[in-house]
Each structure stands twice: as structure tokens, then as C-alpha cells.
Design a protein that fits this description.
Length: about 260
């Protein structure tokens, strides 16, 4: 990776080619980070993201394909990044998969896919990159931020048991690793409500979205930028905060 400045922090963001991940990557670049962004199938969008961030912020961006459902490849990727990068200061576990699993239709394959991508891959990737993060010289040390979900924190939604279980495991990982990696690395999470509705499939229709927003005290959806601001604060500036889950949900958790 060719950085514009050897002293610039480097952030690795998974699933950053589009939507919330793109907003996170762009916000971290504005905050002074060079970037490694991963994608699974969205190569064209990843290239557009790289071009846009580099031209608008001056950050250096490295693209890396990564399928988090392949745990062996995920560990190999983390091991390679730990030696290939000149430094690593921020790790954002943004990539995830999301779909309903009504109990009668739940099977082991779909439930395990959710667990592998949403919980186990972030754990294994953090393990491989822990040494690099512990060597970070940014104020407060290295920063890990996971994208959680308010509906896996005591607000379960009907027909999403397997997904919610995977995200609940991720939240417990945050708390556990906050202890395991202290004092050199802070580990936190952002738990959105809705900051970007699905573009297709479940919850992409206006009536479903209207019903959801009717229970949000702020009476509107959030934006990917709202999530990105919270991630950047936790990763870069919340130097005395670890093991926390920050809800970015317009008050939905309360209603």
C-alpha cells in the first residue's frame, strides 16, 4: 500500500463498496485515514468508491476481495494484511448478511451462514490483525468497531431468530475482546436501527418501511452518514471508551 504519508493512520473496512460501508470509508478518509476496503462481488462499485475517495479526500485506497463466508480465506487474508500493511490503526467490521428465517423454514445451512459471516469471521479477522492494532500509535491505541443491530439487543423482530443470534454473538464479542485487547486496543460497536433500508427483497417496499418508521420517535430513517459519524468517533476519537454499543436508531429502541 502506497500511503500519501507514512504517519497517516490506516483503516480497514469490510464491505465498503457501497451503502453504509462506503459512507464509513469516506468519513474515515475525511478524518485523515488511508484505507483498505474489502468487497465480495461489487468489484465495479469498489473501483468507483476507490476513485471517488482518492479524488475527493487525497487518501490512498487499497481494494481487496474477501468472502467472509470462507473462514479459511478470511484468516489467510488477515494474516496477509498483518504483514503487508505498514501499520493498522482501525478495523471496522461492516460487512454482514441479512435475511429473515421463519422458524419453520430455518435450516442449519442458512443459520450457519449468518453466524459465519456476521460473528465468526469478524472474530477470526480480529485475531489475525490484533498484533498490528496493538502497535497503533494513534491516541487511545487501535480501534475496532463492529456494526451491530438494535434488534439483537433485546428488541427481537419476528422471523429473524438466526440473524439476531448472529448479531447478538457479535455484540458479546465486542465486550469480550474489549477486555482481551485492553489496554492497547479499544473495541466498540454501533447498533443502527434503520440507516439504509434494503434496496430489494424483504423491507424494500414502502408500506413495510412506513410501519417501521411509525415506531421511531424521530419519525424518520437515519442515513449511512449518521452511522459513519458514530463509527469514526468510536474508532478515532473516543479514547476512553471501550466495550460499548452505541445505538444510532432515532429512538427506536425505546418504542
Amino acid at each position: 500500500m502506497t500511503s500519501r504519508d507514512d504517519d497517516r493512520p490506516i483503516a480497514l473496512v469490510t464491505g465498503a463498496a457501497r451503502r453504509v460501508g462506503l459512507a464509513i470509508a469516506h468519513r474515515l478518509a475525511v478524518d485523515g485515514c488511508d484505507l483498505v476496503i474489502t468487497y465480495r462481488t461489487s468489484e465495479d462499485e469498489a473501483r468507483d468508491t476507490k476513485s471517488s475517495i482518492e479524488s475527493n479526500t487525497g487518501a490512498a485506497v487499497r481494494l481487496e476481495p474477501l468472502d467472509l463466508d470462507d473462514l479459511e480465506a478470511t484468516e489467510s487474508f488477515g494474516e496477509r494484511m498483518a504483514t503487508a500493511l505498514p501499520r493498522l490503526d482501525v478495523l471496522v467490521h461492516n460487512a454482514s448478511i441479512y435475511f429473515p428465517t421463519p422458524l419453520a423454514e430455518t435450516d442449519a445451512a442458512r443459520a450457519l451462514a449468518l453466524y459465519r459471516v456476521n460473528a465468526l469471521a469478524p472474530l477470526l479477522l480480529t485475531k489475525q490483525l490484533a498484533g498490528a492494532l496493538q502497535a497503533s500509535t494513534q491516541p487511545g491505541g487501535g480501534g475496532v468497531v463492529c456494526m451491530a443491530d438494535i434488534h439483537a439487543m433485546g428488541r427481537p423482530r419476528q422471523d429473524f431468530a438466526a440473524y439476531s443470534m448472529s448479531k447478538a454473538a457479535l455484540v458479546e464479542m465486542v465486550r469480550s475482546l474489549a477486555r482481551d485487547l485492553a489496554p492497547d486496543v479499544r473495541v466498540n460497536a454501533v447498533a443502527p436501527g434503520v440507516v439504509a433500508f434494503p434496496e430489494e427483497g424483504y423491507e424494500s417496499d414502502q408500506e413495510t418501511q412506513r410501519r417501521y418508521l411509525s415506531r421511531v420517535p424521530l419519525d424518520r430513517s437515519g442515513t449511512p452518514q449518521d452511522a459513519a459519524e458514530a463509527v469514526t468517533w468510536l474508532a478515532r476519537h473516543a479514547t476512553y471508551t471501550t466495550g460499548q454499543v452505541i445505538r444510532v436508531d432515532g429512538g427506536r429502541y425505546l418504542a
